[in-house]
Each structure stands twice: as C-alpha cells, then as structure tokens.
C-alpha cells in the first residue's frame, strides 16, 4: 500500500490561510471578447486584482478540460474561463458548444470535492471592462476564502 | 423453422447461417474458458469455429472494445478491405457499438449486431466472497438463473442470482440491445423506466470533505495499470492523453496527483459516451469503485442535455452540439 500523501489530508482551509497569502489566478480569455474586455478595463484605468495571469485563447471552445486540471495540479489557486456572450461568438457557436462542456466540468470537479470557487466560467464582451473587473474581483474573493490549493497539487 | 432450444444453440445456428451465406468474415462472441465461471471472448472466422460459441450470464466482457482496432489499422496490405463483423451484443455492448459507429470507429454497413437478451452478468468477486476461499471446479447457470458451483471439496453450492450479479446489471434499464440486426432469443423488455441514480444522489448530498476523502481513498488504491482504459470500449484513442508527450499532460508516476489527474481526465472523456457497462470496474485489479464517478457523468448528461449514450444512431453526441436554452446557472455573474 502506498503511504498517505500528507498534502492531500483534509484540512480546514479557513484556519490555515497564511496572512500575507495572495492567490494565483489563471484566466483563459477568448481573443474576441473577453481579452478585449480585459484590455478595455486596462485602458479605462479600472482597477482590478493583480493576481491574474492571462492566457489568450482563440475561443472559449478552445479550452480543453485538461488545461484546467493541469493548472490546478501545478499550483494555480483559481481558474477563470471567459468567453463571448452566447450568440456573440466570433465562430458562431464555439462558446455554446463549450458551455455544455463547462457545465459538466463544473459539476464534475465539485462532485469529487474540489471547491466550486476554484474553477469559474463567465461571459464578458469587448465592451464590458467594468464587468471583467467585477468578475475577477469576485473570483479572487472566492479563492481567498477557500485558501491555497492543496487538493490536486504536486510537489516537485 | 429453427427450434427455440436455448440461446447458445440459437446463437450457433445464426452464426453458422451468417458464415454459410458469406455475410460476415468474423464473429466476436464468447467461448468457455479453461476455468469455471470464466467465459472468455473469442473470435470466429469460419463456420468450423461456430460450435464453441456460448451465451449465458457468465459472459461478462464488453466485446465492443475489440471493434475499433479491426477497422482503424495503420498497416493496410494491398487489397485489404474492412472486415464484415458480427458481434454478440448484450444491451450495454450494443450501446457501445452504437457509440463507436457514431464516432466513426466502425462502419455501420460492416457490422452485424446480434442482440442477445441479458438479465445481468455474474460478478466473480461476489462469487469469491460467497465461497469464502473455496475453489470451484465447475460452474453452471441453473434454469432460474442462480449459479450452481461444484467445489474442490466435493460439496456443491448454489449462489442466488441477486447475490451474484454485478451492481451495474441489477439496475440496468437496457437488458436488450436498443439497436440490432438480428435478435437472438426473446426480448426481455424494459425492466425499469429509468435508472434511479440513487448512489450518485447520495454521494452528491454529502458535504465536500467526505466526497473528497472518498475520491482520495479510491484513487490511492490505483496503480495506474490502465486496465480500466484498456477494457473500456470508448477508450480507443491511438495515443491516450496519459501517454501523450506533446504536450505532456501527466508524468508516469503512480503518486496521487498524477493518478487523480488521470482519472479526472479519463472519466471526463466518458461524458455522453459511457453506457455504464461496468467494464472498467471489472477490469480494475485494485477494486476501485469507479462506477460512482463514471455514473455522475451519465447522470449529468442525462439531466442537463437529456441524452443517453448508445440508444439511437441519429442523435448527435451531446458535446458536439448545443441548444440556445442550455443550462447556464453555473456561469459567474458579477
């Protein structure tokens, strides 16, 4: 039998959050809407949390669930996936097909006991800089509440 | 007129006919194994082999697993034609075959689905538990479906059907093949209107910590032998994401994060495709309770998209299509 992985022990996250800790958030933003939305937030000088690392993807339909598992395993505390609003996809239906995948993925991760705050999905258009900042703030607040990721991470 | 004797005889009769009329090149079915209780898959390529075919509730394997490799050969000698294959299919096998046809892993026109009625297959682990270490030397399925075992001590034991069946079989909603070309025996009919998913609902009702704990416990048993993947008819990718090197999704170790990653990925890949045949659970040498996780996918796809895998050839796979009114309640709003 294998020895228990000490990192994977169940802990009470509330009691263990280090004081100075800031979460690492990974945001997958679609090229046509959400990335432009984030850009607009920037040029409009809207303040949003600096915890985010952005990866630009051609479409939210590009997101492979394995990207998200990989991010969590490598110690990313929260993942945000954002695309165009339904009906506005540059590729007509990319986000609509992705939406089905996301619905299953969200349920699936929650089912095995990973906090739902860690993986979030949203729609942000190119004109919604303020909305992008608000959503990001919400994600960061949520992840701060659940604490650093411990469940899927691998020590190297 | 052919006589209705038993299903094995009827199967042999049909198989012989198919070979004699030159309608198939290969038949995938079951034969008696060398050990009692172990019926094994067999490949029959001419009328001579037909007599070894059997069908009873000891035929557990999902034969659809063998189909894709017959058609997706990389080495194709000159004059190679895709074979015409007949496959003995229980309800779950037939659903897997339908899935494979839909995913273009097997051409419909080359497949003859021989639908056999199945009221459940026997779980060897349950029999082992019931025998408590004793060794059976012969096994027979009685008229009423119970399993008659002759032990090495000379005693004989009878295990009732309810105690011997797989969990997946006891609440199976599709005992008959929903799509078939030739039906063997008589239709059993719909046993239950819907599968209740009671186990999944109970699991969902738990708080996150016990759920995570259970997932962790099950995953820590895994030795990453990939038996679940090999047994699964849906896992036909020439290169599995677990073995891909560009990108390298996961390492080769059997430490927990890697194992969890593998199962999270593999089970997610079953979304909208899993027919809950239980092949992965049967194949697992460590006895991991995979079904509680795979069934979540089955349930979600059914509830969110109203889709059941392998029922019809026309319905598009759920993750290849969409509806404008799909559920959006999970989307984060500011």
What is the topology?
The complex is a heterodimer of chains A (156) and B (334).
Chain A: H1 13-16, E1 25-30, H2 34-43, E2 52-57, H3 65-73, E3 78-83, H4 94-111, E4 119-123, H5 129-146
Parallel strand pairs in A: 1-2, 1-3, 3-4
Helix pairs in contact in A: 2-5
Chain B: H1 7-20, E1 26-32, E2 39-44, E3 53-54, H2 67-71, E4 85-89, H3 91-102, E5 111-115, H4 124-131, E6 136-141, E7 147-151, E8 156-159, H5 161-164, H6 167-170, E9 182-183, H7 198-205, H8 208-220, H9 227-231, H10 256-269, H11 279-283, H12 291-305
Parallel strand pairs in B: 1-4, 4-5, 5-9
Antiparallel strand pairs in B: 1-2, 1-3, 6-7, 7-8
Rounded radius of gyration of chain A (Å): 16 Å
Poorly predicted spans of chain B: none
Instruction: Give Rg of chain B in angstroms.
Output: 21 Å
State the low-pLDDT regions of chain A, or none: 1-11
Strand percent estimate of chain B: 5-15%
Number of strands of chain B: 9
CATH superfamily of chain A: Lumazine/riboflavin synthase
Describe the protein's architecture and organization.
- The complex is a heterodimer of chains A (156) and B (334).
- By secondary structure, chain A is α/β, with parallel strands linked by helices.
- Helix content of chain A is 38%, strand content 15%.
- Chain A has one domain: 3-Layer(aba) Sandwich (Rossmann fold).
- Chain A has a 4-stranded parallel sheet with strand order 2-1-3-4, sandwiched between helices.
- In chain A, strand 3, helix 4 and strand 4 (119-123) form a beta-alpha-beta unit.
- In chain A, helix 2 (34-43) crosses helix 5.
- Chain A is globular.
- Residues 1-11 of chain A have low confidence and may be disordered.
- By secondary structure, chain B is of the alpha/beta class.
- Chain B has 3 domains: 1-120 and 171-193, no CATH class; 124-164, OB fold (Dihydrolipoamide Acetyltransferase, E2P) (Beta Barrel); 195-328, no CATH class.
- In chain B, a hairpin with a 5-residue loop joins strand 6 and strand 7 (147-151).
- The radius of gyration of chain B is 21 Å and the shape is globular.
- The termini of chain B are far apart.
- Chains A and B meet through helix 3, helix 4, strand 4 and helix 5 of A and helix 8, helix 10 and helix 12 of B.
